[in-house]
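Entry 14. Structure prediction run on the chain below.
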Amino acid sequence: MFATMVIGVTGGIGSGKTAVCKLLEQHGASVFYSDEEARQLMQSDARVREELETAFGPETWLEDDSLNRKFLASVIFSSKEQRLRMNTIVHPAVRKAFNSFRLNHERDGARLIVKEAALLFESGIQELDVIVVVDAPIDLRVQRVIDRDDVTEEQVHARIRGQMPATDMRKRADIIVDNSGSEDDLPAEVENLLAVLSAYRR
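Output returned:
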């Protein structure tokens, strides 16, 4: 019986880590999207909601009781202390959710489990076999985020300053995926990644 491989995929904003994970899913991987899980927990988990409101006030929620993502982004990307405060509230809940996801998929016989996380290093690495960093030139990353999120260049740079530098991520990576090309180039990069991961199994 084969052993399940558990990998982490990370990268700076605009690097394309989520696009890489979507392609891995097409190849049969079970992917846990940490940022999506965090948003769901902030919206639906009673303990997380209470702690967020205590930390950041009633502006955390919009009139329809949905998460005020724009407000929270402006707060956490403008202050290291506020980012740490947010992470202290959310990361333990996400970590618990990933552990459940992992156990369930291992039980179901998953061959490859992927944890996609923007803050993989900052949130603590959980017994991962391989760490993959997706990277691209900074100018390209900035333009991707501007096009995707309809934000200003300065807002993107503020978010980048709030993350671990790409150079530091690359130093801690087992594998680096180059996403400096077009969308059409990425599937080949992911196939190369899968080939390298196969070598890790031997």
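The mean pLDDT is 93.
Filed with the rest of this week's runs.
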